[in-house]
Write a structure and sequence with these properties.
The chain has four helices and six strands, in the order αααββαββββ. About 10% of the residues are buried. It is an alpha+beta fold.
């Protein structure tokens, strides 16, 4: 009986020690997956930055149709002027009224929120004509971009004026 108990204990001990060991590769993802994710993120970042730069150029140049191409129909914006939320149609009406002379986009950060959504934050220093009440304005911007039907477009916009 004693030999039987020793045999069972040794068997359990070996089974437990083998079960407790994990392969070394389970804690670290393969290098190819990491590099692929980094490349996909870099591509997305470049694409969304290019879209945002083109969108701002269209706004500055008062090209309403080109500007509209970067906005989903259910687009909503909250701008730095404290006038509340705007829908796409109201934002497009404001393109004609714009007095943006130039701008500087910088400090982009793109954070994927899944395969079809991303949060983009950046800073914009806007320059207005010389006779404007405020010649320059710095705003921090957060946008959510969605990919629908294979296209990336802006879905939400939030701007905050910085002094």
């Amino acid at each position: 009986m004693r030999i039987y108990l020793v045999g069972v204990c040794v068997g359990l001990l070996l089974a437990c020690s083998a079960y407790g060991q994990q392969p070394a590769t389970t804690n670290t993802p393969p290098a190819t997956k990491q590099s692929t994710n980094a490349a996909v993120h870099a591509d997305l970042s470049q694409q969304l930055q290019a879209n945002i730069r083109a969108m701002w150029a269209a706004f500055r140049d008062k090209k309403k149709q080109a500007y509209a191409e970067y906005l989903w129909d259910d687009y909503k914006a909250v701008e730095e002027d404290a006038q509340g939320e705007r829908n796409k149609l109201r934002v497009l009406r404001e393109v004609d009224e714009s007095v943006v002379q130039n701008y500087t986009l910088q400090l982009f950060q793109v954070d994927p929120l899944g395969s079809d959504a991303a949060l983009v934050t950046y800073e914009n220093v806007i320059q207005f004509p010389p006779k404007s009440r405020n010649r320059f304005e710095k705003i921090f911007i957060s946008e959510i971009w969605l990919k629908r039907h294979g296209q990336w477009k802006a879905w939400r916009y939030q701007a905050t004026r910085v002094k």
